[in-house]
Amino acid sequence: MNSSKAVVILKVGKVGFIIRLVCWDEFYTELQQDCKLFIFIVGVFCLFRIGFIAVMHSFLSEAVTVSDIVSALYYGLRISLKSAGMLVLVPLVCCTGLRLFLPWKGLSHIRFYLGAGYVTILSFLFHARIPYYQEFRMAFNQLLFNTLNDDVMAIMHTVVEQYNLSVRLLLAGITAFLLCKLLQRWLAVKTIRFPRLPKWYQNIALRAALLVVIFYVAIFIRFGGTMTYAYNIDWENSGVTKDQLLNEAILDDVQALYRAYVLHERVCSSTGLDMEPARLNDYGSYLAGKQVNSVNLDDFLRKKVIVGTESPPRQVFLIIAESYANWPLLPQYSNLAIAGGMKELIAQEDAAYVPNFLPNGMSTISGVMGVLTGLAEANLYLNYLPESYKEPYATALAPQMKRLGYTADCWYAGPASWEKIKDFTLAQGFESFYGMGDFASQGGNVWGVDDADLYQAVLGQVKNDKPGFHVIITVSNHSPFTVDLAKEGFDPAIVTAGLPDKCKNDQELIKKLGHFWYADKMLAKFVKKARQQYPDSLFVIVGDHADRVNVETNPAMFERYAIPLIVYGKNISKETFPEQTAGSHINVIPTLLELVAPSGFEYYSVGRSLTDGNDFGMNYGFWITSGYMGNADNDYKETHLSKTGLLPPDQDKIRQEIDSARAISWWRIKYGKMLQTVKSI
Fold first, then answer.
1. N-terminal to C-terminal alpha carbon distance within the chain
2. C-alpha–C-alpha distance, residues 377 and 360, integer Å
3. What distance in Å separates the CA atoms of residue 14 and residue 11, rounded to the nearest whole number?
4. Where does the record place the Sulfatase N-terminal domain (predicted)?
5. Res 19: pLDDT
6. Cα separations (Å) of 499 from 417, 519, 546?
């Protein structure tokens, strides 16, 4: 027998099979090729990581040090060991593994084709990651999986118009071509022959040692540069630096896509919720503020208006403003004149403003769902679930306003098909819906008409012959940012005067801020005209989400995520909300009902009214009070607008508030109103 080969002959009946079990020289050669491919892919990950940090360096905070960058590169290398190991596993099996049994040398070509495919995909992902981060401040997230539910053509138009798709595709193609040529040369480098020792038992020991080394190297790669799971690194614990960009750079594109997939699966299956179904009665009783014994979940959400009014407004306008963040209203940004309309409105005697306010989710649809249904974000797309179309939720806003004698209509600047918004709003009690196809417009883009045209349509159609409740959802302050700002009177100088020096020549940022200015201006203009046209009216204004545009590359948590809540008009004064009020979208419904309903009116909501001194807000990932904001799923918190003597809420209150709102909302959306303890997640 050849010392480097073993052959087994099996005979079954008259047919003989020759099984080529091991050829150590070939096995060792193929293994080296896999190692070279592994090293190359790790190198590509590291190259793209460095490139991402270099291209996006303007997003680095000023506090970033060389040590932070080195840490990001180190932890990025570790997590990329796992990604490269996963990718190389396929050629390891298909080439090295099959070569043990098949003498066909063409198997080696499969390795190059697989490697070239990997490199090509990674090149295109790298060039896609840059605009994705600019938009979402993340290197791919679960919103990728909602693309097919969204307006695909609108997304494509946005990408083409705003992000120079053809140029990016060309750059990605050139990058992929150069890397594939480099890979071809790298794999052509000669390999080392497997050593031969004089004694047979020495050769056996050497081969056994090789297998042991392979085993431990596999463990080292599997756990990201460590030999034990206790020090394993993955996408959930890789955010080790104090900088958002660096933390995202640590994740290579494979890990970022894996994170997006896991979060999407949590959305689909709700495994991301930290709740115990057996405690639903306790959760409901906490929200009710008293012990409730019932199998009907809605019984836990029943409330009564405390003060109310006997002179309700005749017209009620609820405006959900696209990307209207709270930070432009803060004193430190007073030199950035993009929110003058709302600042002037807030200064009115019959206006009240809550700065300590959070959106329901990270996207427009999450915010709209939270405002219209009053249900907390619970890792479910309720606009696609059957329960939402059986009947309106007891907490839904439109039916409760209709019980007060209002007609209910919804105005959306975009297409009626977006996120099934028309079907959903009508199913949830609105009597009529108007989308971009229902009114004329000379501007706009694939996402919808310009705000001016939307507001004009509302003013032209709303009649004052009977009480009306009108929800208005805008889109102009959204990429691809196509409003003709010059025509609207925007002077870039009013923005650049308030920008830090490093941003004064950033035309893209100025353009985005100009659209905020436009949205603010059109909103203020609408409120003024509507108040003149309908003097006996109430306006509730809230952003759908923030976290899209900010002057700071790494803003504080409050500046990044908070949105404003502004109420103006009949029955409103500066004392409408207590000084330390805080809340989120789920508090809009009870607050509005307290402002328009008579005392004792019975309604349903998960949240509490802000008029009643509610001092805590929560959403999909954060909580907020008048002095603090923190992460909903860990102990991290930051101070904001702090005043002497304010203390953060204790952890028990935070967990009770968040778990109760999430759990009850989750069950109501997933299973309906009846509680059945035999059900499980």
1. 60
2. 6
3. 7
4. 316-596
5. 39
6. 38, 19, 19
Place of tokens 């890789």: 238
Greatest Cα pair distance, the chain, in angstroms, is 104
Q: Tell me whether residue 44 is exposed, middle or buried, using C-beta atoms within 10 angstroms of its C-beta: 0 to 12, 13 to 18, 19 or more.
A: buried
Q: Cα–Cα distance between 294 and 281 in angstroms, integer?
A: 8
pLDDT of residue 273: 58
Pairwise CA distance, residues 29 & 24, whole Å: 8
Spatial contact of 48 and 18, defined as CB atoms under 8 Å apart: no
The one-letter amino acid code at 259 reads R
Collapsing DSSP states into helix, strand and coil, what is residue 160?
helix
Where do we find the tokens 């297409």? 415
Task: Copy the structure tokens of residue 559.
Answer: 């500046």
228 or 537, which is more confident: 537
How is residue 592 annotated by DSSP? H
Structure tokens that stand for 113 in this block:
């084709």
- Per the document, the length of the chain is 681
Round to whole Å and give the CA distance between 614 and 580.
8
pLDDT-wise least confident of 239-253, 507-521, 522-536: 239-253
Token reading at 555? 């803003």
Phi, psi torsion values for 488, nearest 5 degrees: -85, -5
CB 493 within 8 A of CB 336: no
Ordered domains of the chain (ranges, CATH): 27-268 (no CATH), 278-671 (3.40.720.10)
Half-sphere exposure of 151 (CA within 13 A, CB side): 18
Residue closest to 392 by CA, chosen among 424, 360, 367: 424
pTM over the 0.70 mark: yes
The amino acid at residue 613 is G
The answer for 435, left when phi > 0, alpha when psi is -120 to 50, beta otherwise, is beta
Give the number of other Cβ atoms within 10 Å of residue 466's Cβ.
10
Q: Which tokens belong to 48?
A: 């793209």
Q: What is the C-alpha R_g of the chain?
A: 30
Q: For residues 491 and 517, what is the distance between their CA atoms, to the nearest angstrom?
A: 10
The three-point CA angle 506-155-270 to 5° equals 105
DSSP 426: H
For residue 218, what pLDDT is reported? 87
CA 570, 571, 576, 582 dihedral sign is: negative
How far apart CA 273 and CA 254 sit, in angstroms, is: 25
Q: How far apart are CA 453 and CA 459, in angstroms?
A: 10
DSSP category for residue 95 = I
Say yes or no to pLDDT of 545 above 70.
yes
Looking at residue 422, its amino acid is K
- 567 forms beta bridges with 352, 540
Count other Cβ atoms within 10 Å, centred on residue 189.
9
DSSP 420: G
Sign of the four-CA dihedral 579, 585, 587, 590: positive
Per the listing, tokens 């798709």 go with 165
Phi, psi of 292 (to 5 degrees): -125, 130
Please check whether residue 617 is in contact with residue 357, taking contact to mean a CB–CB distance below 8 angstroms.
Answer: yes
Q: Rounded to whole angstroms, how far apart are CA atoms 70 and 72?
A: 5
What are the residues whose beta carbons fall under 8 Å from the beta carbon of 69, sequence distance 6 or more?
Answer: 53, 246
Cα-Cα-Cα-Cα dihedral sign, residues 475, 477, 480, 483 = positive
In whole angstroms, how far apart are CA 604 and each of 86, 132, 249, 308? Answer: 50, 39, 44, 15
Tokens, residue 373: 């249904």
- Determine how β-strand 407-412 pairs with β-strand 602-604: unpaired
Token pair 């700071």 is found at: 552
pLDDT(18) > 50: no
